[in-house]
Amino acid sequence: MRNIHIPLPESLYARLKAEAERRHAPATRVAREAIDSWLSAARKVALHREIAAYAAEFGGTAQDLDPALEAAGIEALLRRDAESK
To answer: ∠ at Cα 67 (55, 58), nearest 5°?
Structure first.
């Protein structure tokens, strides 16, 4: 485990302490969980942007989807629809 010193404005420190007291947990644990949660959410946003950029650039091209796989997917959907009737 590594330590880091982060100066906090008084209002943020008070909110952190209040949340820690509410949870009956050390403020360091609450801060660690908050940082981990924020970093996970930021990574999801970045990944979504990367996928959207790739889709915008390559959608409808040969790199979009393997034609054989696409045909198999369409066949499976048609078969499922026919079986459900």
So the answer is: 20
**Residues 20-74: pLDDT tens digits?**
999 999 999 999 999 999 999 999 999 999 999 998 998 888 777 788 888 899 9
Interatomic CA distance for residues 83 and 40, integer angstroms: 42
| Pick from 3, 4, 36, 32: nearest CA to 20 | 32
Tell me which residue has tokens 């696409």.
70
Alpha-carbon separation of residue 3 from 65, 72, 85 (angstroms): 46, 53, 63
| One-letter identity of residue 62 | A
- Check whether 19 has a pLDDT greater than 90: yes
The contacts of residue 6 (CB under 8 Å, 6+ apart) are 31
Query: What distance in Å separates the CA atoms of residue 85 and residue 83, rounded to the nearest whole number?
Result: 6
